[in-house]
TrEMBL record:
<dbReference type="InterPro" id="IPR001611">
    <property type="entry name" value="Leu-rich_rpt"/>
</dbReference>
<protein>
    <recommendedName>
        <fullName>DUF1565 domain-containing protein</fullName>
    </recommendedName>
</protein>
<dbReference type="GO" id="GO:0009279">
    <property type="term" value="C:cell outer membrane"/>
</dbReference>
<dbReference type="InterPro" id="IPR011050">
    <property type="entry name" value="Pectin_lyase_fold/virulence"/>
</dbReference>
<keyword id="KW-0433">Leucine-rich repeat</keyword>
<keyword id="KW-0964">Secreted</keyword>
<dbReference type="InterPro" id="IPR012334">
    <property type="entry name" value="Pectin_lyas_fold"/>
</dbReference>
<dbReference type="InterPro" id="IPR025875">
    <property type="entry name" value="Leu-rich_rpt_4"/>
</dbReference>
<dbReference type="InterPro" id="IPR032675">
    <property type="entry name" value="LRR_dom_sf"/>
</dbReference>
<keyword id="KW-0472">Membrane</keyword>
<dbReference type="Pfam" id="PF12799">
    <property type="entry name" value="LRR_4"/>
</dbReference>
<dbReference type="InterPro" id="IPR052592">
    <property type="entry name" value="LRR-RLK"/>
</dbReference>
<dbReference type="GO" id="GO:0005576">
    <property type="term" value="C:extracellular region"/>
</dbReference>
<dbReference type="InterPro" id="IPR003368">
    <property type="entry name" value="POMP_repeat"/>
</dbReference>
<keyword id="KW-0677">Repeat</keyword>
<keyword id="KW-0732">Signal</keyword>
<dbReference type="Pfam" id="PF00560">
    <property type="entry name" value="LRR_1"/>
</dbReference>
């Protein structure tokens, strides 16, 4: 069974009732003016072999149920009638790993990403909302996905944080009063999983790190933006008392690096 509705001027959203058409093998809705989210009920179309949704105004997240449609062959362009397509919409990241390389060009300017809140008065059993913040920055990072923001209230946080490859912004309330203290138990902030240029660390004092390389901040194959940060009183047994980078490119804006030490190279930066 095939449903061809492409190249019209259809408006509105794709109805969730589409999932009841379980005998469909081809669904072509491209080149219309469809809006709203892709209904998760599309995942019920288990006989679907071709799905073309490109060149509409679809928004929101891509439902994970698309990953269940194992007979689809995805493409970044409408190169043939035998491929499935999503490009030229307004679908928001993060994208599921089963499909992320085939999403193609999307207009994400209207996407709204979650904000996670952290405060010294919070609890890691909370939900990270402004009313019920987490207690640790790492918990906020762990809860986030690409594009999210972690907002940290003033206070001292005894922890060592790792972005774990997430392209997010971690923002302190004020660098003079929002302190990440490594407690001499390793690098304070780690970027080592190809974090890109949308990754931000802003508004903190980073202090009391103690490691082999990169007492305050360590970067491997990463490209973060570090802004309005004070890096002080960190030390290493080898190189980069304040900041150590390898195969990386950092953007530093209004960063003060002072009173850091290294046994070998680069007390401040290496």
């Amino acid at each position: 069974t095939r449903l061809y509705l492409s190249d019209n001027q259809l408006t509105g959203s794709i109805p969730p009732e589409i999932g009841s058409l379980t005998n469909l093998t081809r669904l072509y809705l491209f080149n219309n003016q469809l809006t709203g989210e892709i209904p998760f009920e599309i995942g019920d179309l288990t006989n679907l072999e071709r799905l073309k949704l490109h060149t509409n105004q679809l928004t929101g997240s891509i439902p994970e149920t698309l990953c269940d449609l194992s007979d689809l062959t995805w493409s970044l362009e409408d190169s043939s009638w035998s491929v499935s397509t999503l490009f030229d919409n307004q679908l928001c990241p993060p994208y599921h790993s089963c499909i992320e390389e085939y999403v193609g060009e999307q207009n994400i300017t209207e996407c709204v990403y979650p904000v996670w809140h952290v405060a010294t008065t919070g609890s890691d059993d909370n939900d990270g909302s402004e009313e019920n913040p987490f207690a640790t920055i790492q918990t906020g990072i762990d809860a986030s996905t690409d594009g999210d923001t972690v907002l940290v209230e003033s206070g001292t946080y005894l922890e060592n944080i790792d972005y774990n490859g997430k392209n997010i912004a971690v923002i302190g309330e004020d660098r003079e009063t929002t302190i990440i203290d490594g407690n001499q138990s390793g690098t304070v902030v780690t970027f080592e999983n190809e974090e890109d240029t949308t990754t931000v660390l802003m508004g903190f004092t980073i202090q009391n790190g103690l490691s082999e390389n990169g007492g305050a901040i360590s970067c491997y194959y990463s490209y973060p933006v570090i802004k309005d940060v004070l890096i002080q009183n960190n030390s290493v047994s080898n190189s980069g008392g304040g900041l150590f980078c390898s195969s990386s490119s950092l953007t530093l804006i209004s960063v003060i690096i002072s009173n850091n030490s290294a046994s070998n190279d680069g007390g401040g930066i290496d």
